[in-house]
């Protein structure tokens, strides 16, 4: 039986492509243009992490949680943080 393994990349880009870079390199954050996935992002530390990722310039923030009411409450906060970045 043959077994093969693949090494998973730590990210899709080693650095974001040029078309994702903001006009000024001084304002670029390490998360600019990346997608963040936050498990448990509807409450507590997970919600604060999702908000901070948006604040740091992540292009997309995906949150996973079980409670739709908590999700509906935190999404506007994440969107607002993303607009402020």
Could you please describe the fold and organization of this structure?
- The chain is of the alpha+beta class and 85 residues long.
- It has 2 helices and 2 strands, in the order βαβα.
- The protein has helices spanning 44-55, 68-84, and strands at residues 35-39, 60-64.
- Strands 1-2 form a two-stranded parallel sheet.
- The radius of gyration is 16 Å and the shape is elongated.
- The termini are far apart.
- Mean pLDDT is 77; it is low at 1-6.
Distance between the termini: 52 Å
User: How many extended strands?
Assistant: 2
Radius of gyration: 16 Å
Low-confidence stretches: 1-6
Number of helices: 2
Strand order of the largest sheet: 1-2
Helix content: 25-40%
Large-scale geometry: elongated
Which secondary-structure class do the elements indicate?
A: alpha+beta
Mean pLDDT: 77
Order of helices and strands: EHEH
**Main sheet?**
2 strands, parallel
Strand content: 5-15%
